[in-house]
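User
Class, as today's exercise, I want you to study this protein, comparing sequence with structure tokens, and judge whether sequence predicts the tokens.
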Amino acid sequence: MTKARFTKMKISGLSVVVPDYPQSIDDHIDYFDHDPAKLARAKKIVGYGTRYTSPPGCTPTDLCLAAGRRLIGDMKIDLDEIDALICVMQKPDFSQPGSSFIIHKYFQLPKTCACLDLNQGCPGFVYGLWLAGSLLESGSCRKILLFTGDYYDSSPKLRNRLLFGDAAAAMLVEYDKEPKPSYFNLGADGSSYDLIINPSSGARLPIRQDLLDLVVSDRQGDELKLIDGYLDGLEVFNFSIREVPPNVTELFEYAGLIASDIDFAAFHQANKQIVNHIATKSGLRKDQYSVLTFSEYGNQSSASVPGVLAHMLKERAATGQLKVLLCGYGIGAAWASCITELAHIYCSGIIKEKFDNMRTREEEISFWIKRISGANNDPS
């Protein structure tokens, strides 16, 4: 595993945005055979509640821009001082270029600002923070904007879609004059790359006519296509409870801390059952972590960990000093944990925002026809 200790990194601000289009699990009682008792049991065990989903035409990049507007505007950030922009996202607007360049253009960041795109999911926020810490520690950067965002729209399986909510986070990470150690512990297992995957999303199996009508039945008897997202829920559960608790306890040892030293632990909100299991095996008490963010917003993928911070620590992070554990795990398979301090930071909480005037698919096609033909030379 990759361990690191940084002393020059501080989190100065955090903003999280969700699209204000809520969906309640109560509206899907048909999935539970119209049985209120089954629905109540699922709420109790898994933690189902409310999730927020994007309207047509709204992408994770749009959510990141909204989170960035809030962060930059409220903190009055001088964008000429930004040295790097890191964007953690699995569903960028385009396979090439990455969405970091779209964000760079939108905020008119200086040409001296480096752009970096990281294709990571649920562990991605901690991976992105580790990259930011590395750049600050090296002395090559002093101020970094870190964006994380995704949505889950590609699975036809309702049982998968019911878990996920859409969100994005924007964070300002800065050089710290007063050394405060931050500790990281990262791991991965490429042999599990196919537990969460979209088989035809890249160069290995590009979408062609032969895939459009091909239907496969999974082990639960659900039908899906290779152009859809696939999630092996049981194996993801097994991997999570097998790999993540040792990663956390190793991090405690590396940092010279014990579980009781942590003021709050922000775990990726996979679901209530998984979070409770990981936290308990990591030695944490019930009052040191929360599963409420999953119940109120769903599994927010790479924005899940900052989503927990914004949801649960808005006031405490702004007014006090907290030693926090940040832990993400999932696609890859990968996992990552961090111990750092939050001291009087800006925190927006979770902002609900409407996205009602997005370009339609037809408008998008028309735009690119004009752009490529030369009738429109401004790809904004």
